[in-house]
Amino acid sequence: MKYSVIVRPEAEEDLKEAFSWYEDNRTGLGYDLLLQVDAGINFIKRNPEIHPIEYKGTRKHLIKRFPYKIIYLVEKEKIIVLAVLHGKRSPDLLKKRIGGI
Question: Which residues of the chain have pLDDT under 70?
Fold first, then answer.
């Protein structure tokens, strides 16, 4: 089955912030993060149900090389990326985002 991927604006904002932080610390590192996130999304697209269901139906994929995770939902033929968060971020942020869906 082919899945379409929808990246919510909040997740795009997460990526922009992380990209800027890594680029400010070392030129090119932000692009490495984006490549790893892209690889993670492609993995999820091929195997959307490989990760266990967690809070309110969400799933998480850990990104390689960086302490970030992709939080997503699988609905019918859609993968909805809710967040790309640092592993140390408060889970309350995710709860607020899920409540807004």
Answer: 100-101
The three-class DSSP label of residue 20 is helix
Q: Which amino acid is at 47?
A: N
Q: Name every residue whose Cβ is closer than 8 Å to that of residue 19 and which is 6 or more positions away in sequence.
A: 30, 31, 33, 34
DSSP assignment letter at 55: G
CA distances (Å), 68 to each of 31, 44, 53, 75, 76, in order? 14, 15, 18, 23, 26
Domain 4-99 listed as CATH 3.30.2310.20: yes
pLDDT at 101: 59
